């Protein structure tokens, strides 16, 4: 496992930028103190592997900064990206000894890690952690179902718009920014990674990004810096209705 040096400076849980969304979001002060005693930080450079599928995983973690991908490699060597890990997302499975997917840093990545056995013991003593982890697991299940719909039914333009909306929502949430205002963020994925994740060709991704830019739905500076002037207009491009279902 490749880990960059030097290690990240220690950050108190109460000052953590993902505190309101992470697995510790419901914890009281004394519970945070217990988490402090078993946590440590790891950082990875873009392209580095956090862990391979099937490897023993002796920690669980929350993404603090950066983006990682979850991928599955088939027997013939083909690889499919099956998920994204964004800031505040949880990595690893209490009670499971090995990793289910390859986890690779897409950008510079910082993770707040917890030694697995002490974390599992703490879950038993601290219901707030277990409750929050259950909430996050159910949210992840909902997201997986929505992604099945996206991959199976949406057009290329709708897929691109949906991915941009997901990233924009998370970015705004971490910054406590209202969704009604202009949203500005750096796209964490290359066009190639977007194509892999969405089941599209590189040419299609580039063409649809250019079309969204030409139509004023997004503003692009370079290939990564994205401005969304009107989030509701972007949502209108996703093919979803106001309740989150697909438009007929």
Detailed description of the structure:
It is a single chain. This protein is α+β, with helices and mostly antiparallel strands and 248 residues long. The protein has 2 domains: 134 residues, Jelly Rolls (Sandwich), CATH 2.60.120; 82 residues, Winged helix-like DNA-binding domain superfamily/Winged helix DNA-binding domain (Arc Repressor Mutant, subunit A), CATH 1.10.10. Helix content is 37%, strand content 21%. The protein contains 7 helices and 11 strands. α4 packs across α6 and α5 crosses α6. The chain is globular. The N terminus and C terminus are likely disordered. Keywords: DNA-binding, Transcription, Transcription regulation.
Pick out its properties.
248 residues, alpha+beta, Jelly Rolls, Arc Repressor Mutant, subunit A, 2 domains, 4-stranded antiparallel beta sheet, 7 helices, disordered N terminus, disordered C terminus
What is the CATH topology assignment of the largest domain?
Jelly Rolls
Shape: globular
Distance between the termini: 47 Å
Order of helices and strands: HEEEEEEEEHHHEHHEEH
- At the first level of CATH, what is the class of the largest domain? Mainly Beta
The quaternary state of the protein chains shown equals: single chain
The second-level CATH architecture of the largest domain is Sandwich
- Name the CATH homologous superfamily of the largest domain: Jelly Rolls
Number of domains: 2
The parts where pLDDT drops under 50 for at least 5 residues are 1-7, 242-248
Protein name: Helix-turn-helix domain-containing protein
Domain HTH crp-type: 154-232
GO molecular function, one term: DNA-binding transcription factor activity
Pfam families: cNMP_binding, HTH_Crp_2
